Amino acid sequence: MNSLVVANVKQRPLRTALSMAGVALGVILVVLVAGLVRGVSRDTTQRQMNVDSELRVYIDNVNIASGANPLQMPRRYADAIKNGVQPTPEYPDITPRPPVAGVKEVTPVGLWVQNSVGGIGFETVEGIDWESLTKTTGLHIIEGRPINDSRQPEPEFEVIVDRYYTEVNKGLDGKPVRIGSTITALNREFTVVGIYEPSVMSRIKIPLYTMQELTGGADIADNCSFLMVKCERPELADEVRETIKKYYPGLKVIRTDEIPALYSQGLVGLDIFLNVVIAVSVIISTMIILLAMYTTIIERTREIGILKGLGASKPFIVWAIEKEATLISALGVAVGFLISVAGKYFIEASTRLRIDLEWRWLLLGAGMGLVCGLAGALYPAIRAANLDPVEAISYE
Amino acid sequence: MESVLETIKLEMVYRVGKVDVPALRGVDLQAGAGEYVAIMGPSGCGKSTFLHIVGGMLQPTAGQVMIDGEDLTRMTDSQRTDLRRRKIGFVFQRFNLFPTLSAEGNLKLAERIHHKSNGSDSKRRRDLLRLLKLEDKIHHKPLEMSGGEQQRVALARAVINRPAILLADEPTGNLDSENSQIVLDMLRDLNKEFGQTIVMITHNPEAALRADRIIEMRDGHVVGSRRNQ
Fold this sequence. Notes:
CATH superfamily of chain B: P-loop containing nucleotide triphosphate hydrolases
Distance between the termini of chain B: 18 Å
Largest interface: A-B, 23 and 26 residues
Oligomer: heterodimer
Helix content of chain B: 25-40%
CATH architecture of chain B: 3-Layer(aba) Sandwich
Radius of gyration of chain A: 30 Å
CATH class of chain B: Alpha Beta
Shape of chain A: elongated
Structural class of chain B: alpha/beta
């Protein structure tokens, strides 16, 4: 019977190819989308964690897990936490606060989301204060120089990027990014002046002042998205957090090591999206196999009649058709895997997205492809098994 | 002679719309073990219906069909399929080989359906193909063979599992006279050498003369039976 199955699959190469493509499409959807979601979230979380600061401070009611927040937080909170605050002629009603004990450094960070290169996905650009950032992250320049704070008149906008960015991206001149390359950020051309290590948060960093100027000017003058707080000793983190909350009740303070959990909360929506993708893939693959096998059965009505004439039982006929569908599905799964792997390298090479091809999703994709093949072929197989042998054998 | 096939008052009525069309009207017939029976009659006399019923592919309206001691009419659909697999071989007018399989592949498939693993009876396959003068066509597909060769492969497939009865429905209907003679010779050889019981439907008087006995049918009745010399 195996030779009959193989012969039938080879007999109609176009239909076999289309059926395989249907299964492969489902596998690709599951494997690549899951890999994309996991890859991007893991990469982002890892970079968010890759800092020395123990705390992050946000204004209340922001969605931390969303990855990026507008410039809503006054930068002066950084000075207030580090140095304390006193009433000034400008703010005479301010309640005096002492410096928060145990704080070594505070740095403001601005975040801006833009479309990724290649048009797939998005990427964040960070506005930083270089001096204070280096004291909270361990970040250092490995090539070129740091960015200026842009407050002096500059001939061009400056940006620093991490090593990974230079390895997978090209500048506006089409060549790999290097010192002196120009790239686009906030719809402007920026010149790469330095390459830094380690990868910390966003890969593209520009001066916070430049970000403020380009995104809102006077409306968000001297605002940032959040603060990073470096404590004098890591074990002081909880104490510092409580003090900040006490002095500034309108702020939300989280520990850096809580970030993965917060991102996981943000991934709940992505999990729903993934489940929808899987459901769509299952429907597509099943329908394509069902239609392909159904047309096969109609075309081979006479042959099924012959099988019945030879005494083939219903289970024998069902199994013969299911084996054919399984073979097509297995080939489709293999093609799907190959295209997924190729797609991973293509997407990673042409965008800044990362894709993790996990065994779990590969197995799920394979299982889904095979189950869809079996399920899609079941109705045509049962229909074939129940054909009237005399009518089937006389079928023209 | 021990009876391998026996029908008793076999009736078959087709329902066409609201009209009952009788195809068989009480057919009593017997075929002994090793007997070669030809059934003749005009189109529409019920020959093919008779063959499909004794082959277990149709359930009669009334009457009884005994195949090698088993009552076909008391069986379920799956039991009839099982009996067809064990005891009946079919040869069709249009050969009905699997076009994607070679001559040997068609035989192997029949063996597989008969619950034998592939290649279990390769000697019998070779002997049979030699007897049918097909040893050089073993790897050929149907479209690479003449009509006569295809029908001989179909014949080999029908008897590969040693059925109690071989049912042949106009086996020479699609062949020229030369190939018809070859196929009829083969049927005769199978009958003589292996003692194969054969029931053959034919319009061809010359073909019928090769059988041991000729049964005449008309309007769903058996109207005559005579032995050939």
